Fold this protein.
Amino acid sequence: MSDRQRNGFILLLVVGLLAASAAAIFTNKTILGLDLKGGVELVYQGQPTKQTPTVTSDALSRAVDIMRERVDQLGVSEPQIQTTGTSLITVGLPDVKDVARAEKIVGTTAQLEFYDWEASALTPNGKTVASQLQTQDPQALAISQGSGTAGPGEAGAGSMSLYDAVTLASKQPSQASPDNARLGSQYFLFGAPGSAACAAAAQAAGTKPAPGVHCLLSGPDDNQADLLSGLPSGVTASEGQLLVVPPGTIVLQAADPSASHQTSFNSPSAQFFVLKDHVALFGNEITNPQQSTDEGGNPDVTFSFGSKGQTSFQDVTAQIAHRGDLVSGLGQTLNQHFAVALDTKLVTVPQIDFKTYPDGISGKDGADITGGFTIQSAQDLATQLRFGALPVSLRLVLATRLSGH
């Protein structure tokens, strides 16, 4: 080996050792607080959204800034949030007591949408509720007016299982438009009831298979690569049924009527609705969200509208009120509704009393979101909305809980 080659080799070796040392120092610094105090370390993968079709370093940096602002509201000391590589965000939260709450606040996209409920919601025949009210279709009436003790948008009021909802949604035509909440298609993989794949999925989740129910093996995801990477260990794609929901249709989880009973998306008892994905008003059109209480003393979230939001809210509530007047008659009052959804779940589906508001509700005085809140959950939602939706969708790819020592 020549002197020049030998010197070059030594230089590369030194550079390599320095890089390795820096990596070790960086890693130790990242998890030091977690080692001492315990807590949680979360790794998210940034994915495209309608607002950010391509995940860029700037989008990830903005997401980190918003996540830091949210974490400040948790009172976590010395949180560590940083980008890793080209698409990952690593979050270290030392000494966190309520890990589930922390995960929800930090990683939720917090995209709020308002829909005309009856004009958007579909019955199992694929038709909108609004188009079937005058014929007194029973399923349309249940979704519109509620059923028994379940109000509109809640489980039991015309809702479906996830498999049935996704099956219905997958049969709808593609209708991409600027008012869609979701970008592109959405992919799901289901296992057949009683299958070995469902047994493996339940074992991986630490639960028991639900008899007679198609289980969700993986999804929802924005592409097939992510869908397949999310399969439980030992389960292959050939063991599942692939369903693809095209743009223009969205599957939303039913609203929980009580804050004391929150149903997870993956629960076998979770119920869903299928809507035409045409948003009447987006969350970026509201301002100054705050936790408050309604007339009954229950926690809620109040907010104002920007100038565009005022017009949008007035327009959609007027449309809803006019339809309520049209479909009511013969002693029957069928007030119509608008739906408020946060990401993939309905929050509330309030009615517009067309007799009190025949031309809709003015957005000048703002509005409020009620239903199923504790003071803390209302504060958390207000926090998420106040700092804005994350510019990218975050997929949790790793969660490590440390007990500290």
Notes: The chain has three domains: 31-109+390-402, 149-278, 282-386. Confidence is low (pLDDT under 50) at residues 1-36. The CA atoms of residues 325 and 331 lie 12 Å apart. The first helix runs from residue 3 to 37.
